[in-house]
Amino acid sequence: MKKKLGLLPKLIIAIVLGIVIGTIARKANLPIIIRIGATFNSIFGNFLGFCIPLIIIGFVAPGIADLGAGAGKTLAITAGIAYLSTLIAGTFAFLVDSAVFPTFLKFGSIVMDNAQNAEDTMLAGLFTVEMPPLMGVMTALITSFIMGIGIAVTKAETLKSIFHEFQKIVEGVVAGVLIPLLPFHIYGIFANMTYAGTVAEIMSVFAKVFAIIIIMHLLIIVFQYFVAGSFAKKNPFKMIKNMVPAYMTAIGTQSSAATIPVTLECTKKNGCREKIADFVIPLCATIHLSGSTITLTSCAIAVMMLNGWQVNFAQMFPFVMMLGITMVAAPGVPGGAVMAALGILESMLGFNDNMLTLMIALYIAQDSFGTACNVTGDGAIAMLMNAITGKENEEEAPAENPA
Q1: CA dihedral sign, ordered 82, 340, 352, 182
Q2: Structural domains in the chain?
Q3: What DSSP designation does 5 have?
Q4: Contacts of 201 by beta carbon, 8 Å cutoff, 6+ apart
Q5: Rg of the Cα trace of the chain?
Q6: How far apart are the first and last CA of the chain?
Q7: What is the pLDDT of residues 8-38, one digit of tens each?
Q8: How does DSSP assign 263-318, residue by residue?
């Protein structure tokens, strides 16, 4: 059986092809070649904008509703720790990015922030097809929160089932339409940027950005296991060593869910009780996204700086807070987290279609390492919960068995 070409290789081919065609069109002065690609980009971008509110409702509402299943003290503590871990990761990324990125990134070197300026550097399509979304991004987010929380509280199983069916439809659109067409969109963007003479800047900048992101992934893992180790009274580096199989598996699968069996095995090897591991690991596979948050925050900051936008903590921290919620239960398709985050990139940071597309490409290029960071961190949270629940059991034991 012929093995299918993965999404990342397709994106790499699309980028290379875009650079080659863009270079040829620039030297031969053939803008029509670029404008044909730009026409597809315009239509695809409008379709993506139409889908964003549907993606938010399809991902976020069922994810929040599912957290209500089996709700209890352990669930609340686990979810709280996972969310705190995500906030710490995003804040850490902001601090590092703010200090390091200006040393190699040329502020305002690429303009993609609005139609007027974009036309000065990138060619417009021959025509476009308007596709106004059914609702705004914030309306979709609020609707998702209300419905998700409402379903969890009222245990509305019928409505929950409907939202899960809707989630399957949205996942089908993402996996069957958006993801397969993405390489063509990336080709058009990179051909256009090459024709405009900006692609070399982007490629050189993001090679360094990716290196910094991977270093931050490793540092946040060490931090997570130092915290878990201090509670569990275990050597953090020994625990990290035991988690290496899970890390490597996640790099290959690009899916936290697909890595669950290996993550469970590694976590139990670290001494986590089976009952705790079996509960925490599958839960964290959908709600703990520290690695993805580092990647998205860093790529967003780099894109904003390249566009000459000011970046500050007051702006980025609410964005990080929303990331931790909107990425809950992102689907098991490559780039699921960034697809779920498109709405807040647009509504909170003001990204346009070109910037959103660039974010998708940049995120997917790092998706394996972000997923590996998420998965490894799940093991740290399980060990922390093992220590916390162990102490609680010790405190309750005398009351249950008085001397």
Answers
A1: positive
A2: 7-394 (1.10.3860)
A3: P
A4: 106, 109, 110, 306
A5: 22
A6: 67
A7: 688 788 888 988 998 898 888 888 888 888 8
A8: HHHHHHHTT--HHHHHHHHHHHHHH--HHHHHHHHHHHHHHHHHTT----HHHHHH
